Protein 1
Amino acid sequence: MTGSSPAAPRKRLFVKTWGCQMNVYDSARMADVLAPLGYAPAETPEGADMVILNTCHIREKASEKLFSELGRLREAKRAKEAEGGRMVLAVAGCVAQAEGAEITARSPWVDIVLGPQSYHRLPEMVARATRAAGAVIETDFPAEAKFDHLPEAAAPQGPIAFLTIQEGCDKFCSFCVVPYTRGSEYSRPVAAVVAEARRLVAQGAREVALLGQNVNAYHGEGPDGATWGLGRLLRELAGIEGLARLRYTTSHPRDMDDDLIAAHAEIPALMPFLHLPVQSGSDRVLKAMNRGHAAADFLRIVEKLRAARPDLALSSDFIAGHPGETEDDHRDTLRLIERVGFAQAFSFKYSPRPGTPAAGAPFQVPEVEKDRRLHEIQHLLREQQLAFNRSRHGLRIDVLFTGPGRHPGQVAGRSPWLQPVHAEAPLSLVGQVVPCEVVATHPNSLAARLIGGERAGDQPEQEKAAA
């Protein structure tokens, strides 16, 4: 008697991600790389055949959080072995790149340590880890571009998809580890970016967010052999049928050129929201940070952007208590925030990163001072975010619905300015851009109602420009 053999049981993969949206993208691509080996997603690490911790070195106490998690996973790994199985435990991302062999020295039950430029080699690393004793460590910067070795097939991301187009940083800000963990700036070729964007749209994406450590430093090779900047790339992507929205993050003021600013006026699909980190409003601190721009430069860029797109909303990053920051410097930052007005922002107190220039700099600011300054910055930013949200009340806006809301009968989505929006509506609207009226505002979200008989994108220009 003949017949087909039963399919081999699928292996379970659990990935925990810390940090930026680029790490989220990397985690998804690691799952794509491992899918041909039979790995399917798991909801929890318990009982998984492989666990990947994708780490971020930007946030405070990143290493401590990693080793705490590794301690918990040691017990899960032992439980798996007690059942006669094996859990392959991997540490990926920027902490892996920075710490390297120190991770396996402190946590010898870790099987694989790999930096963010090496995850295309995961299948080979898994094979090596399962057939030999000892950890596999890959934290070199390989000569080949990892994107050239990733599978084209990828799991659908949903109505909003993320696409990494640029990695690395050549800026060497005093406080930042990215140049040391992600390497120098690299831009993917235009053809590869467009091809991946088309695949994402074919899988149901209506909005694509372009990612990079310095995304507006993009300088990819175009199909014509010329070097394309981000503005030209955005114009090309806007022509993809079915793609309704474009965004990009994270930008650096030094790379905000006139062509990219013009793109905000010329491309309707480019959403009126921009994350543009400034870090400080003090020229003295900006120089100590090696930012390469002054506060006045940032303000001129903001003026140009708002002239190009009057309804543009801005987000930014701020660091409180960088070494050498005085009370006058702190007040300069508050004045810049007041002058610009931000729809949202991220702010942190300075935290030393080993190996960065600021970590060993003199005149470290006392923790109590950093805490006070951060509180004042965050208080002002919260006021501005609340005021911006309130200014949306009564406006007709286009909402891209992305999934169910928190309550029965609700569907959730995103406004053009990236605010979470919820409305009483059927789930059949997920994946659609729908005109709505904002009926209530909250500190972190908007409530809306559907407008019947309207087409997406037809709100009056005066309402578009109300920001």
Note: The mean pLDDT is 89.
Protein 2
Amino acid sequence: MLKQITVISGKGGTGKTTLTAAFASLATNALIADCDVDAADLHLILHPESTSKLDFYGMEVASINMNKCSACGICRERCRFGAISKDLFIDEHACEGCGVCALICPEDAIIMKENKAGEIYRSITRFGPLAHAKLGIGEETGGKLVSMVRKNASEMAAIYEIDLIVIDGPPGTGCSVIASVSGVDLVFIVTEPSVSGIHDLERVLEITTHFEIRTVVCINKYNVNEEKTSIIEEYCKNKGVEVVGKIPLSENSTKAMLESKTVIEYNDGVFSGTIRDMWNKIITCDTSKKSDTNF
């Protein structure tokens, strides 16, 4: 049966993608899905070779047929997003696709048209298949694109007879994060010992608790502030969430990225051994046990 694991963090810069890439190099018969579509960077380490590309269309945007337009300006007056200029030019980046302008235009000069908002890719890497995407600049349909990447990943898993999907989720707690964790078997949260790290861990745990998803935690750069690390460990203990590993601050991560390698490929020493131990724990984790945290 296909198993899905999502790696997320409450904030950016915690080492989420570094660990996802490391897991990719440790996994057997796995597919990787990069769902951090707003700022996808897993490809910088995995160097995928694209096998197919599909245009992604998000919200519709308004378009004015100037041959029918009487320049009455009603559309500009009613547009609450300021997307229509005085010369009746529609800024597609500002248009929210609400359709009010098309509804109230007395000349029926405005239509809603499809808007290309990004691209979806199927690729092959040295660690197996990769499903990934790129969201266009200023686009706001990340959640929908994440859902499509996951659908793409499931289809690829069936084609390649894959039994595990490792998902690199986006940071934060927005709709893209929800789309990346919904229906998965396990969520692996990466946090760090800082005030913002603790705060964002609490917020993202609320999401996994709501969806009743089995969740485990990793504390990255734990030795930067061991007092805060102890606070996180105690917090997780009280909430019934297992801390599966603590990773020390190391130059290995940066050096590995500079060589476009995973940390496992770069130096399979003590640092990588800690990540191996975590991977062995989560791959054998009992996902039938739902999250039992309380808020």
Note: The two ends are 32 Å apart (CA to CA).
